[in-house]
Amino acid sequence: MIQHFQYKSLYENQQLPGWYISFYYQKEKHEGIYHPEGRIEWTSPYSFDIETEQNVKKQIHELMLYHVYDNR
Question: Do residues 47 and 56 lie in contact, with contact meaning Cβ atoms separated by under 8 Å?
Fold first, then answer.
């Protein structure tokens, strides 16, 4: 389960899409860039297997939908 999820806009003009994300997963901090089309570019090393990465990405997409897209 993802814990301590945080996001912030990559741009001063917050109308432009693109967000820096960070969170903890299994007591390890992970960071990345969430692109407008939903692609995640990891900026920190990670060691997810394919199934775990898909699960983490799904959780991130749900969090972004709730925090960013549903609150506009």
Answer: no
